[in-house]
Amino acid sequence: MIQPQEHHFPSSHGDICYFEWGRAGEGQSVLLLHATGFHARCWDKVVDAFPAGTHVVAVDQLGHGRSARPEIKDWAMIAGATAELVESLGVIFDVAAGHSMGGHCLVQMVARLSDRVSKLVLIDPVIMDPQVYHNAPSYSDSYEMVSRRRNSWTGPNEMFDRFKDRHPYRLWDPAVLRDYCEYGLLPDKEGGFELACPPKTEGSVYATSATVDPYPLIDSIAQPVTILRAPQLEQKEAFDFASSPTPPELAGRFANGTDIYLSDLTHFMPMQDPGRIAQLIIRG
């Protein structure tokens, strides 16, 4: 595996960390935006499966990874910081892919910078039914659940051992789970480690998931858009984060949208089958 270069960009919302494989102009350029609570290096195994010479930029979005962690008040903050970064790079990406929250933020970014991305791949994006944005429900239960997550660890090995047999992590490719743990912790002030996306920050992202209505922005996107969609699971006592948040009809809202339903995968499809998702991203 080729290790990426780590870079930092001073956005108006705070420092944004991003990782880069290869160089622009040497092959296809791909932009990758992760999901809520994750980080740029969760894409490592997807990047490994891209054709040799592919230029890749994967972003630690605002509040995540090694980027700044201000209070997240709405998703426009997250998308805005990423848009400022992409504008500064001066790269025209052949394809940009966003997973979950990353898909929503990618729509915001492309609506603002329409000439910087040729094709979009939205991987089970958190773009919900239109009425959600007109009458936003309370996400207090999700906030409380996520904000109570364990935040103190001795290191990545303890985190991996803790998660490997638990849902939904047991569905993941173990190598992706290793990357999630390895790069998802930062040193704390007591000789241990803490989550790079603090639980309360992650909770605030869930709590603000209906703050930006993406549908007026969707109307402005003319590029080809491929939506990779997982099944919507029956919800029982506790919310199952492996369920798809994406309406089946979403692809039809785009001028040039294509729906690909992956019935054997879940919302965490890049973590389950990174090679397959890599092929679908490159194909656009």
Note down, in words, how this protein is organized:
The protein is of the alpha/beta class. The chain has one domain: Rossmann fold (3-Layer(aba) Sandwich), CATH 3.40.50. 30% of the residues lie in helices and 19% in strands. It contains 10 helices and 11 strands. The chain has an 8-stranded mixed sheet with strand order 1-2-4-3-5-6-10-11, with helices on both faces. Strand 3, helix 1 and strand 4 form a beta-alpha-beta unit. The longest helix is centred in the N-terminal third of the chain and has 15 residues. It is globular, with a radius of gyration of 17 Å. The relative contact order is 0.17.
Number of domains as seen in the coordinates: 1
Strand portion: 15-25%
**Biggest sheet record:** 8 strands, mixed
Helix content: 25-40%
